[in-house]
């Protein structure tokens, strides 16, 4: 019998974004290319806070069950699904659907589809609502479901599916590896993954942060250098870096100085998404070394599988805090206070809903 409903921790008012309410709701239909996953655990992402607080704008759905870093077991598959079987441990990240027909989808850029279905607060083309992973079950198209290597514990793999993939994609697309120097701006949930995966890929990683408070952590994660962005920090770093990834969600970064540290023709890639946007970049800075200011959005399935394989092979160990799902408000508050070190993982504690 097809599972028709899930139960999740929902936010029903953006003004009360810490008031999670256990709510039963209808799942989207089990289409031929979709997989139903029984949620074992779910990571907590900065995107969750931006969404439920209204920082990224009004909601598309009536309420929001957030969470898009899901690990669980397959419990149903559509008739056209070939890659997954019931009982298999899988992951689902920040996207659950795309059109499958556009140029982007046909060229391994499905995360850039013009008609995506996101991990929550989103509608399918038929206007069915999709909710996220602070819940008992989620559904996703087969393309957005990832096999999890046996060597990766579920709580370690969970936040890789957004936090990890968001930095892994620009790392590999911009050639991070042996002999390359990568700068990472900010050491939060995303930044710590940029250090871990940049190091696992063989690059030399330098962390930039506002103060020395996280220096010890950065070096333990594998960074070779830690630079506090105090006045004059960039004076001796001209043409130093092959890539800089900005993981901080702030519009008050010293972007001119950071851009000046790039080698000729290289990129500064934003994966942090400040709510207020950017206003402090001068074109004159870009012209001095032909630098590019760019951005990136999660990653494709091939990159997700490669990331998980690398994490298993290199024993990548994220710095995580494990909580019960009922403590979602505590985890969101830690994101807001910037006190989480460095990702929170919520363990399923909801009684399974019956079909």
Automatic annotation (TrEMBL):
<dbReference type="InterPro" id="IPR013154">
    <property type="entry name" value="ADH-like_N"/>
</dbReference>
<dbReference type="GO" id="GO:0008106">
    <property type="term" value="F:alcohol dehydrogenase (NADP+) activity"/>
</dbReference>
<feature type="domain" description="Alcohol dehydrogenase-like N-terminal">
    <location>
        <begin position="32"/>
        <end position="150"/>
    </location>
</feature>
<dbReference type="GO" id="GO:0006066">
    <property type="term" value="P:alcohol metabolic process"/>
</dbReference>
<dbReference type="InterPro" id="IPR047109">
    <property type="entry name" value="CAD-like"/>
</dbReference>
<protein>
    <recommendedName>
        <fullName>alcohol dehydrogenase (NADP(+))</fullName>
        <ecNumber>1.1.1.2</ecNumber>
    </recommendedName>
</protein>
<dbReference type="InterPro" id="IPR036291">
    <property type="entry name" value="NAD(P)-bd_dom_sf"/>
</dbReference>
<comment type="similarity">
    <text>Belongs to the zinc-containing alcohol dehydrogenase family.</text>
</comment>
<dbReference type="InterPro" id="IPR013149">
    <property type="entry name" value="ADH-like_C"/>
</dbReference>
<dbReference type="GO" id="GO:0008270">
    <property type="term" value="F:zinc ion binding"/>
</dbReference>
<keyword id="KW-0479">Metal-binding</keyword>
<dbReference type="InterPro" id="IPR011032">
    <property type="entry name" value="GroES-like_sf"/>
</dbReference>
<keyword id="KW-0862">Zinc</keyword>
<feature type="domain" description="Alcohol dehydrogenase-like C-terminal">
    <location>
        <begin position="189"/>
        <end position="312"/>
    </location>
</feature>
<dbReference type="InterPro" id="IPR029752">
    <property type="entry name" value="D-isomer_DH_CS1"/>
</dbReference>
<comment type="subunit">
    <text>Homodimer.</text>
</comment>
<dbReference type="Pfam" id="PF08240">
    <property type="entry name" value="ADH_N"/>
</dbReference>
<dbReference type="InterPro" id="IPR002328">
    <property type="entry name" value="ADH_Zn_CS"/>
</dbReference>
<dbReference type="Pfam" id="PF00107">
    <property type="entry name" value="ADH_zinc_N"/>
</dbReference>
<keyword id="KW-0560">Oxidoreductase</keyword>
<keyword id="KW-0521">NADP</keyword>
<keyword id="KW-0597">Phosphoprotein</keyword>
